[in-house]
Design a protein that fits this description.
Largest sheet: 8 strands, antiparallel
Number of helices: 19
Number of domains: 5
Helix content: 25-40%
Structural class: alpha+beta
Number of strands: 35
CATH superfamily of the largest domain: P-loop containing nucleotide triphosphate hydrolases
Strand content: 25-35%
Shape: elongated
Radius of gyration: 34 Å
């Protein structure tokens, strides 16, 4: 996929002009709620398209600046690739600006631009003083080396320059990975008249297609993506980095909550206990004690829980990373590397943030031994790091594994010698467990297919692979099928794949009627009636007759002369032998009628059948035996 998708965020103190700046950049007013219009303050997240060409698509999220709306702010920032920090020239850095900066740092946002707004309100010589003041406040944050842009949203001064800087910065940035499983943390749920339930969010990773089956986690609700919209326009698919609205079938608005996650795979872990690495804010006001109640903001979820330390009983000021655990009251969906924020629920205060070391934390004893174990987990052994990369991507060549694991080439090659990994196609690696899981999945699909279609030879290989390609690379699926054929787990006839133990058969409740049909057909010899009459006399319904006819043909029990007349296969072969024995290397229709004693009604279809299967070749008014 050549096109790249990004979402940027506007962050900063209330009334510093984020929404107005967004409108100046996009011509979209993101304040859509009545209360927002009345109070002139953003409560919910606002989104707008900023820029699009053949290579790039950029969306803007305007996050609320008021302290009471910090939850929405975290939800909005969690999915963005670049932040425009908005600071009003006439006020400078304010308390909410600082809190936003802390949150951006904890969430791992690395790309930023400082937009000094309302520059027309201050004298020109005052601008340098404002910049110095801002630089002093931003020292040590992710914005300390960020470019400064001077803008005024009303007069449009500097707007085009800011837009160009945003585009230029994103063109140099790595795009989110659209391979692998789809994940979209839900930040908005609503209904559209005549359409039903719609969810909205930023695609964290992977991609989604119209019509795709998905799950709402952690509840496990199965839904279908009936329609997609990107920037209010219908779309057939959406990719990592894009804002997307998805119309879901099979679920009501009341069934889904903000903070839940829409996924394409069950590989994402549902958990309540997280091993984490955190850092705390510099000016923490209140003491954080062992098992202090906290609110954890992860993705778009906000969950109550407690913080558990293993090397201390309280925390006030700490510059170093702390290894600890979050024990939550509700299940969330997460994986290693996900970023989060923790806040004190009362009195409200941002405590800090960090990243998930292990989403499947256990109960540990207090002490340095546990800290040492968590440190090992944090760093991750080479096998763990390779496994994590392959678990996410399913299949990777050596050069890509080297990038994702940050292991040196020698260590990486030694690690890949483990039985946990498999090299296939001579160039790509995958997990042994993943191959086993795909084998099991294919077996389940084939067994389901055999149950539903007991008379068919098997499932078309191309159809089988296509049904799983949203989850796994095609070349990996192809390898697993071919490997399964070699191991005798599957067998194949022509393009059809089946489990080794399965044999096509007539369903038990139709066996007797099928026997009667074949008995009557054989009884009539070569002077048969239309095949449909035999089905009717045997009491076999029309909805089964087509499938049964194909099965009997594939089993070489019957053979068609044309689309109406069918013979018993043994009688057909006897007729062929009789005709051979009573004719020379070539013969005419009259000779054939005498040899087999058939009227023209059956003889012409019989001879044409011999031509079609290559027994004979017609030359003018004669037939010549081929074999």
């Amino acid at each position: 996929m050549s096109k790249r998708y990004f979402t940027i965020g506007m962050a900063g103190h209330i009334d510093h002009g984020k929404t107005t700046l967004t409108k100046a950049l996009t011509n979209v007013d993101t304040d859509r709620l009545k209360e927002e219009k009345e109070r002139q303050i953003s409560i919910e997240l606002g989104f707008a398209p900023l820029y699009e060409d053949d290579e790039l698509q950029i969306s803007v999220v305007d996050v609320p600046g008021h302290e009471r709306f910090i939850r929405q702010m975290i939800a909005g920032v969690a999915g963005i690739d670049l932040v425009v920090l908005v600071v009003a020239a006439d006020e400078g850095v304010m308390p909410q600006t600082k809190e936003h900066l802390d949150i951006l740092g904890f969430l791992g946002i690395k790309a930023g631009i400082i937009a000094v707004t309302k520059v027309d309100r201050v004298e020109e010589e005052f601008i340098d003083l404002v910049k110095d003041d801002i630089l002093g406040e931003l020292e040590g944050t992710v914005f300390e080396d960020a470019p400064f842009m001077l803008v005024d949203s009303l007069s449009k001064k500097g707007i085009e320059e800011l837009k160009s800087k945003i585009i230029e910065t994103l063109k140099q940035q790595e795009v989110r990975d659209s391979r692998g499983a789809f994940r979209l943390p839900i930040d908005q749920v609503f209904t559209v008249k005549g359409q039903g339930t719609v969810v909205r969010g930023t695609v964290y990773e992977g991609s989604v297609e119209e019509g795709q089956l998905l799950k709402v986690m952690p509840k496990g609700l199965e839904v279908r993506a009936r329609q997609l919209q990107v920037h209010h326009k219908p779309a057939s698919s959406a990719f990592a980095g894009q804002r997307v609205a998805i119309n879901l079938s099979g679920v009501s608005k009341e069934d889904i909550e903000r903070g839940e996650v829409l996924v394409s795979s069950e590989q994402f872990i549902v958990t309540r206990t997280l091993d984490v690495a955190i850092k705390v804010v510099e000016d923490l006001e209140y003491l954080v004690k062992q098992r202090t109640p906290i609110k954890c903001h992860i993705g778009t979820a906000e969950v109550m829980g407690r913080i558990v330390f293993f090397d201390r009983n309280e925390l006030k000021e700490e510059n170093e990373e702390i290894l600890c655990q979050l024990r939550l009251e509700e299940e969330i969906v997460t994986k290693r590397g996900d970023r989060f924020i923790i806040r004190r629920p009362s009195p409200q205060e941002t405590i800090g943030g960090g990243w998930v070391i292990d989403p499947r934390g256990n109960k540990y004893r207090f002490g340095e031994k546990t800290i040492a174990e968590l440190e090992k987990k944090k760093v991750g052994s080479p096998i763990e790091r390779v496994s994590a990369a392959l678990y996410e991507a399913k299949s990777l060549p050596l050069i890509e594994l080297n990038k994702r694991t940050a292991l040196d080439e020698g260590t990486l090659k030694d690690t890949l010698q483990s039985e946990e990994f498999v090299l296939y196609n001579g160039k790509e690696y995958t997990l042994t467990k993943l191959i086993e899981a795909i084998e099991d999945d294919i077996t389940d699909k084939l067994e389901d297919y055999h149950r539903e279609n007991p008379m068919r030879q098997g499932l078309n290989k191309a159809e089988l692979l296509q049904s799983m390609q949203k989850m796994f690379p095609k070349n990996l699926l192809d390898f697993v099928v071919e490997n399964g054929l070699k191991k005798g787990i599957f067998t194949r006839k022509d393009q059809y794949v089946k489990t080794a133990s399965f044999e096509p058969h007539v369903p038990k409740n139709w066996e007797k009627r099928t026997e009667n049909l074949l008995k009557e057909l054989r009884k009539d010899g070569l002077k048969v009636r239309y095949l449909k009459d035999y089905f009717k006399d045997a009491g076999i319904p029309d909805n089964l007759s087509g499938e049964l006819k194909r099965f009997l043909e594939e089993q070489k029990t019957i053979v068609p002369l044309d689309d109406q007349y069918y013979w018993d296969m043994e009688l057909f072969e006897e007729a062929v032998t009789k005709l051979r024995n009573h004719t020379g290397s070539e013969f005419e229709v009259g000779e054939a009628k005498e040899a087999v004693d058939l009227s023209r009604k059956y003889m012409i279809p019989f001879l044409e059948r011999l031509d079609s299967i290559g027994y004979t070749r017609r030359v003018e008014n004669k037939r010549v035996w081929r074999k």
